[in-house]
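Case study.
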Amino acid sequence: GAVVSQHPSRVICKSGTSVKIECRSLDFQATTMFWYRQFPKQSLMLMATSNEGSKATYEQGVEKDKFLINHASLTLSTLTVTSAHPEDSSFYICSANGGGALETQYFGPGTRLLVL
Amino acid sequence: GQQVMQIPQYQHVQEGEDFTTYCNSSTTLSNIQWYKQRPGGHPVFLIQLVKSGEVKKQKRLTFQFGEAKKNSSLHITATQTTDVGTYFCAGPLTSNDYKLSFGAGTTVTVRA
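After joint prediction, the assembly is written out as follows.
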């Protein structure tokens, strides 16, 4: 149980375009989903927290107008990287839990974004 | 918010040997979680520790939560090539927060 999928797994796009990444909880309802960013050989950096039906909460230094998050249902959250630039190239990972402070986070397989 | 520190950053281990990675927080943690990320993969949940002084074992992996709930360790015995990867500890950003702060990770390589 507790499977999280992410799509696409890899994406290459041109500078200036927008890219949408989907995160789905397949066998449970995720009241909260998290979006992380990971650069090579570095740790996971939390970008934002999304709760179903409400606005996402962004971490300090993360531009909410650049990284649009929509948590439309209890099983789906999307991250849209708008007007992507080469410095946005990274590994984007979502995670989900069922809510509550002690809930484990289940991670999706991640999306590797390369902006040319 | 609190941050979680993890050492060492890299661990090169001879196959069959033991090693330990350590995690420290400046504040008391309500719980601590450990994750493993294989090269090219995503973090996979290993375990969660909640109680002061708690010790949990998963085969050759032993996880410990300090008495003050400010530190934790992961000890692996008889390291195998399947243990290769990066091990992250993570703790809640604040005492009542479900957002996690991840340590820098310990990247383990194994010499056969």
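Observations recorded in class. The two ends of chain B are 41 Å apart (CA to CA). The CA atoms of residues 42 and 79 of chain B lie 21 Å apart. We will return to this complex in the next lecture.
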